[in-house]
Design goal:
Elements (H helix, E strand, L loop, with lengths): L10 H4 L8 E4 L9 H10 L4 E4 L19 E6 L6 H8 L4 E4 L2 H13 L3 E4 L13 E4 L2 E7 L3 E12 L4 E2 L8 H6 L1 E12 L18 E4 L9 E3 L6 E3 L4
Parallel strand pairs: 1-2, 1-8, 2-3, 3-4, 8-10, 10-11
Antiparallel strand pairs: 5-7, 6-7, 8-9, 12-13
Keywords: Transferase
InterPro entries: 3-oxoacid_CoA-transf_A, CoA_trans_fam_I, CoA_transf_BS, NagB/RpiA_transferase-like
GO molecular function, one term: CoA-transferase activity
């Protein structure tokens, strides 16, 4: 393969360079589309003092939740944190700093970081604790608060398919945060269900161009369901899909 080949074969290679105190942006929505193997590698490395930016912090014993077990996360920037008892305990005990961010604002912070936009104005959060201490400006008679973009030392994302050059395609709910997260890392690592040869992906269907990606690894995924919901009708069963 050419020098554009970004595939690595071990998780040690995939997360090489991650050190204490770094900021990690993690893709995924609930347990949907999370880079399970990359998160497990961070756990194995024992890296501490991390600031983790993600929609949520997984659940007890799975996803980003496993990084709480040895107190590897110092600060969590999230929009939803309601499924993790250990997260709640560490927050209330003052062991974990949490910056709650509206979900759309969080996505835009990542997107802006990847686009080289340092900050943006949004009406979301004005007049609430989210807007406290932030610059306010009025446009067309409506007040907006200034939100700063987010950049990470590492971004870890999960793709359905990636080619050897790092071009990625996501499926369904995995598209919610992975595309934005992928652009916002100084080093972006993709864990893919399938790695294909260059040219096999339809260019019009690529969500993340390989220019944003530094490393690609083939993963195996458990794809847990975060919360199973069963209807009262015996033959009508629904569940929150994990991918």
């Amino acid at each position: 393969m050419s020098g554009f080949d970004k595939v690595v074969t071990t998780y040690q290679e995939a997360m090489d360079g991650l050190t204490d105190g770094m900021t990690v942006i993690a893709g995924g929505f609930g347990l949907c589309g999370i880079p399970e193997g990359l998160i497990a590698q961070v756990k194995t490395m024992g890296t501490k003092g991390l600031t983790v930016v993600s929609n949520n912090c997984g659940v007890d014993g799975f996803g980003l939740g496993i990084l709480l077990e040895d107190k590897q996360i110092k600060k969590m920037v999230s929009s939803y944190v309601g499924e993790n008892a250990l997260f709640e305990k560490q927050l209330l005990n003052g062991e974990l700093e949490v910056e709650l961010t509206p979900q759309g604002t969080l996505a835009e912070k990542m997107r802006a970081g990847g686009a080289g936009i340092p900050a943006f104005y949004t009406a979301t959060g004005y007049g609430t604790p989210v807007g406290e201490g932030k610059e306010v400006k009025t446009f067309n008679g409506r007040p907006y608060i200034l939100e700063e973009a987010i950049k990470g030392d590492f971004a870890i994302v999960k793709a359905w398919k990636a080619d050897r050059y790092g071009n990625c395609v996501y499926r369904h709910t995995a598209q919610n945060f992975n595309p934005m997260a992928a652009t916002a890392g100084t080093i972006t690592v993709v864990e893919a269900e399938e790695i294909v040869e260059p040219g096999e992906l339809n260019p019009s269907e690529i969500h993340t161009p390989g220019i944003y990606v530094n490393r690609v690894i083939k993963g195996e995924f458990e794809k847990r369901i975060e919360r199973r919901v069963v209807s009262k009708t015996a033959h009508n069963t629904t569940a929150k899909e994990s991918q």
